[in-house]
Every structure is written in structure tokens, then in C-alpha cells.
């Protein structure tokens, strides 16, 4: 069975024409001032505001919790106190701007995820807020975690129009999942009206078009996606799927090979394949794939966690411990306790 590939930004009713989906909630400026007015300096204000987003309501915060079922506008996040990373970042950016902080969007290049949802493989990317600090060149990263990090070397800037376009692409996928196909198509087109240069937008449009039986339109959209972003493997997989279904096997194979060539350099795709192989008890394939992921991105703790699980499945307890020690080494401080507990359990297992 061939799989559609849907890129999402980690992650519904359509907006009215002309409405800004990222319009600030009326209450946001007062909230931001309340939690930052006694703070001195930009770093302190940025940190206090982010903390207030997660502080429980009974303590004066918003109490926002993660929810990737639906991509909300800032107004909906304010109302529901739920958000995925795109929704939360959009609210945070407008909150910062409401009190005079210089905030923009960014995409961490080392944070993404492939996952299977039914017959669909989704590629989920990440978005953060980057705030100009109090000294020249200082930038503060506000992530979905209630902390501020200062390492922005691997964060690519995202224009506001691109983030808005990704919002509509997310909505298109969500609407399609609910079988609201006409609305999904309208949202996909809206994404490209906002940002015609979005390869993600063209690919999502193609997926929606194909779901409606508009194969010629879908093929044109997938091809346009590759023109806009030749390094994206998602439209390659979708073109292969479409062409193979039409019996155009030689063309389909060419796009399969192109897609595999692109993805073999994606550490997260290799990690996804390792997880798949692990679930199918293909231990050697899982070990090979996760080794490749680590070779491409050696400081990703989750890769070592997968490697530890593969080693345990093969009865290699000592290798699993070594992998977990590396996972702990590269993990954020708040995640290290998770690996400590796993290491403690493994070290108490006597090898047979």
C-alpha cells in the first residue's frame, strides 16, 4: 500500500475572507503587561511572559496545555487554553509585540518528526518565537517548553506570511480528515494566496485535490511543489503514488528514487524507519536505520533512546545502557531524570 505524505507544522472552521487568523485577542496586552511590568530587561520579560502562559489559571496564568488535534488561532488559544506549537507561538508573538518587544518566527532545523496516521505518513515540523534581546545580537528563543533558550544557531527565520500559510495548510489537512473536502480545498488555496512560494502549500493542495479525484490538478500541484522546493521528498512520494496508480510505472520509479535520495539525508526520516522496523521486529534494519540517523545528527537524544530499544530487543543490555547514557548526555536538563530512571532499571538487570 502506498502512502500519502502530508507535511504539517507541529501539528476547524475556515476564517472569513480577509480576516487575519493571527489577530491578537483583545485581552492579551493587559495580560502581557501584568506579568512583565515589574521585570527589568528584555530577558526577564520574555521569560516571565512565557512562564505565565503555562502557569495554572488559579495562580494568574493561562494554563495552556499541548493539543495537536486542531490548529487554533491566537483568539482560540486564549479561549480554549490549548495549543500546538504553531498556535502557541502565534499567540506569544502577538503578546510580545503588544508590549513593544521585537518578536519573529523561527523554525528549528533539528526538530521534526515523521509519524504514521492510518494510511498517511505525516512530516511534522516545529516553530518557535525568537525575541530580540536587550543587547545587540542577542536573541532569545521561546519554545513550547516553559523556559527560554539562547542557542539560535540552528533556527531558520520564518516570515510571518509563511507561518500564516502553514496555518491554512494545517487547517486543510484537519478539514480533510473530517471529510469536509470543499472546505479543505478552500483552505489549501487560501494558504497559497498568502504565500505562493510555499512548497508545503502546493503539496497539501495536491493531496486535497487527489482526495477529490482531481488527479490532473493534483499532479500539477505536486510538480509545482518540487519546483518551489526541490529538496522536499514529500511531493516525490505523492507523485510516485499518483503515477503508479495510473500505470505510469517508469515515471513513478523515477520519483521514488528521487524521494529516497532526498530522505536518506534526513535523520528524522531514518529514525522513523527505524521505529517502523522495530515495530515489525526487523531488528537488523532498525539498527541500521537508527545508526544512520545518529550519524547524520549525533546530538539528538531521542535517537539514542530508539537505539537502546533496538539493543534491548536483541538482548544487548550493555549496548542499551551505553545508548541511554548518550541520550541522557544530550537531553535537556528537565528530561534527564527520564533517562536516569531507565538507566537504573537496566543496570539492575543481570545479563543471562
Describe the model:
The protein has 15 helices and 10 strands. It is an alpha+beta fold and 352 residues long. It has 3 domains: 4-147, C8orf32 fold, CATH 3.10.620.30; 173-263, Serine Threonine Protein Phosphatase 5, Tetratricopeptide repeat; 267-347, Serine Threonine Protein Phosphatase 5, Tetratricopeptide repeat. Strands 9-8-7-4-10 form a 5-stranded antiparallel sheet. Strand 5 (112-117) and strand 6 (120-125) form a beta hairpin.
Keywords:
alpha+beta; C8orf32 fold; Serine Threonine Protein Phosphatase 5, Tetratricopeptide repeat; three-stranded mixed beta sheet; 15 helices; 12% strand; flat
Summarize the structure.
Helices cover 55% and strands 12% of the residues.
- Could you tell me the strand content as a percent range? 5-15%
Model regions low in confidence, pLDDT < 50 over at least 5 residues: 1-17, 114-121, 145-153
User: What is the CA-CA span between the terminal residues?
Assistant: 41 Å
The figure for the number of domains is 3
Reading the helices and strands in chain order gives: EHHEHEHEEEEEEEHHHHHHHHHHH
The biggest sheet amounts to: 5 strands, antiparallel
Which strands sit side by side, in order, in the main sheet?
Answer: 9-8-7-4-10
Mean of residue pLDDT values: 84
Supply the CATH class of the largest domain.
Alpha Beta
Number of DSSP E strands: 10
Q: Helical region count?
A: 15
Supply the helix-strand structural class: alpha+beta
Quote the CATH topology of the largest domain: C8orf32 fold
- Give the second-level CATH assignment, the architecture of the largest domain: Roll
Shape: flat
Amino acid at each position: 500500500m502506498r502512502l500519502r505524505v502530508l507535511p504539517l507544522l507541529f501539528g476547524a472552521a475556515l476564517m472569513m475572507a480577509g480576516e487575519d487568523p493571527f489577530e491578537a485577542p483583545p485581552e492579551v496586552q493587559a495580560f502581557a503587561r501584568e506579568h512583565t511590568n515589574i521585570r527589568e530587561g528584555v530577558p526577564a520579560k520574555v521569560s516571565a511572559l512565557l512562564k505565565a502562559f503555562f502557569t495554572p489559571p488559579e495562580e494568574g496564568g493561562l494554563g495552556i496545555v499541548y493539543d495537536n488535534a486542531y490548529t487554533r488561532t491566537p483568539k482560540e488559544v486564549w479561549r480554549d487554553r490549548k495549543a500546538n506549537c504553531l498556535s502557541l507561538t502565534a499567540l506569544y508573538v502577538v503578546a510580545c509585540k503588544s508590549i513593544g518587544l521585537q518578536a519573529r518566527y523561527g523554525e528549528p532545523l533539528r526538530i521534526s518528526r515523521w509519524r504514521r496516521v492510518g494510511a498517511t505518513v505525516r512530516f511534522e515540523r516545529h516553530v518557535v518565537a525568537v525575541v530580540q534581546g536587550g543587547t545587540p545580537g542577542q536573541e532569545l528563543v521561546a519554545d513550547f517548553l516553559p523556559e527560554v533558550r539562547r542557542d539560535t544557531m540552528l533556527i531558520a527565520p520564518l516570515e510571518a506570511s509563511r507561518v500564516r500559510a502553514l496555518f491554512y495548510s494545517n487547517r486543510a489537512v484537519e478539514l480533510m480528515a473530517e471529510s469536509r473536502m470543499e472546505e479543505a480545498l478552500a483552505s489549501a488555496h487560501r494558504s497559497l494566496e498568502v504565500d505562493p512560494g510555499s512548497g508545503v502549500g502546493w503539496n497539501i493542495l495536491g493531496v486535497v485535490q487527489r482526495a477529490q479525484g482531481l488527479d490532473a490538478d493534483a499532479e500539477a500541484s505536486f510538480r509545482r511543489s518540487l519546483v518551489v522546493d526541490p529538496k522536499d521528498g514529500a511531493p516525490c512520494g505523492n507523485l510516485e503514488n499518483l503515477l503508479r496508480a495510473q500505470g505510469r510505472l517508469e515515471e513513478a520509479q523515477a520519483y521514488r528514487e528521487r524521494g529516497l535520495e532526498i530522505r536518506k539525508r534526513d535523520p528524522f526520516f531514518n529514525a522513523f524507519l527505524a521505529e517502523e522496523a522495530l515495530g515489525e521486529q526487523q531488528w537488523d534494519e532498525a539498527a541500521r536505520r537508527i545508526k544512520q540517523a545518529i550519524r547524520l545528527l549525533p546530538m539528538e537524544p531521542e535517537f539514542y533512546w530508539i537505539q537502546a530499544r533496538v539493543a534491548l530487543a536483541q538482548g544487548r543490555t550493555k549496548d542499551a545502557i551505553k545508548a541511554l547514557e548518550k541520550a541522557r548526555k544530550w537531553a535537556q536538563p528537565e528530561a534527564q531524570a527520564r533517562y536516569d530512571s531507565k538507566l537504573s532499571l537496566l543496570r539492575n538487570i543481570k545479563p543471562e
